[in-house]
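Figure 2 data, in text form.
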Amino acid sequence: MDLLEEFIIYMKELEKSSKTIDAYIRDIRQFLEIIKKPIEDIKKSDIIYYKEELTKRRLKPTSINRKLISIRQFLKFLEKDINFRNVKIQKKNYIDDEKMLTLEDVEKLAEVARQNHDRRTLAIIYTLLYTGMRISELLSLRVEDIYNDTILVKGKGKKYRDVFIPEKLRPYLESYLRVRKNTGDKLFTGQRGNLTRATVNNILKKYAKKAGINPKKVHPHNFRHLYCLTLVDKGLPLDVIADLAGHADINTTRIYTRRTKRQLLETINSI
């Protein structure tokens, strides 16, 4: 297996879409073609040269940004210590409002689940909200992973961590377990066996439409973003949030704490 194939697997573990992965691979191949160097010899000067070449080709700044992000992801995967700080990557310091999930959205979503007497989806919604776990982690949970006040979560790289069960989450888990019919070991199951990522996404988007919420922003990863942002608002330090979210790098946690443009404007206007 070559490095690009290993990188594809790594991206899938990060829950990147097939479209995003394909774009990363195209960008990486172009990068290697332009610098004409073996991967192990890549230096920061090569990144700068690559950016200059893209600029000469009159690519839009947004396109250059995306390509540089692809290369940065690849080098991070390779664990190559190249500092991108002086390689300017234009970034918005906020998230578009229409892409951001809010607590109000979650409650509207949960209300639709209640109206449908869907205890399983209620448990999924509030587990994502109150634990911030990845969808892959949620789908791999076993009934026996719940004990006392914690859930044993199998994270990325087969690393395990204990996640606390907040009091607000417990009633939804207990209610679901009372009606759960499948005798398999996985916690969240369906009529045909274990739940899949696609099934969860389809259910959430269906309920989002019924609740009058933009379905594009109702996906499991946005619950994780909302979880981290809520903890920031509660005053928890980033290193603590990183531990709770299972982030190996605190810089990953920083990404999850960006505000929307509307939230930034409200903060500025409140001064």
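Caption note: The two ends are 55 Å apart (CA to CA).
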